[in-house]
Amino acid sequence: MEFFAEYEVSISEIADLFKATFTASEGSKEGELIGGLAHRLMEEAPQEDLRVFTAWNNGELDSAIIFSRLTFEGDKRAVFVLCPVAVATKRQGQNIGQRLIAHGLTVLRQQGVDFAATYGDPRYYKRVGFTAITEKDAPAPFPLQHPEGWLGQFLNNSPKMPFRGPSRCVPVFDDPTLW
């Protein structure tokens, strides 16, 4: 398996992976939503605000993850949010997603990113070092529908919580129904 950070020539293939993965697990409506979200992130978000990582095996896309910038009005620390994550249905259960997330976090750490957040299943993300955070410590851009899914981890020795908000995400995520 090989990891890559270049995504520009594979945008459609990556978006299709998100669509297929979420369609299989959550239904066609969610597949369309997440596939479209991934496509828009890669097409519309400024490159400096986006990190895309993919895992390939013998020329086949196995997994993709996207980090996008999250800014806090009163805080200069570099923060990225991990969302979404997809692993090809036939490759799930093989730790591919976790290995790709760990790789992405290592690259972010090397790039000087201070903190990574995500909004998802705590049981899954704790396996790669995420722990529960509160909106008091790190305000989300919108009220969270599932606050137990707000997770984060420090990537270096920057000052710890709290972050001074409010926070703002990239425009593609500027939709309260996603939170």
Structure overview:
The chain has 179 residues and is α+β, with helices and mostly antiparallel strands. 29% of the residues lie in helices and 29% in strands. The chain has 4 helices and 8 strands, in the order βααβββαβαβββ. The chain has helices at 11-26, 28-44, 96-110, 122-125; strands spanning 2-4, 50-57, 60-72, 75-87, 115-119, 131-132, 150-154, 167-169. Strands 1, 2, 3, 4, 5, 6, 7 and 8 form an 8-stranded mixed beta sheet that branches. A hairpin with a 2-residue loop joins strand 2 and strand 3. The longest helix is centred in the N-terminal third of the chain and has 17 residues, at 28-44. 37% of the residues are buried.
Please report the total strand number as a whole number.
8
Percent in helix? 25-40%
Q: Please identify the structural class as seen in this structure.
A: alpha+beta
What string gives the helices and strands in order?
A: EHHEEEHEHEEE
User: What's the tally of helices?
Assistant: 4
Instruction: Give the termini separation.
Output: 32 Å
| Contiguous runs where pLDDT drops below 50 for at least 5 residues | none
Q: Which radius of gyration do the C-alpha atoms yield? A: 15 Å
What is this entry, summarized?
By secondary structure, the chain is α+β, with helices and mostly antiparallel strands. The protein has 4 helices and 8 strands; from the N terminus they run βααβββαβαβββ. Strands 1, 2, 3, 4, 5, 6, 7 and 8 form an 8-stranded mixed β-sheet that branches.
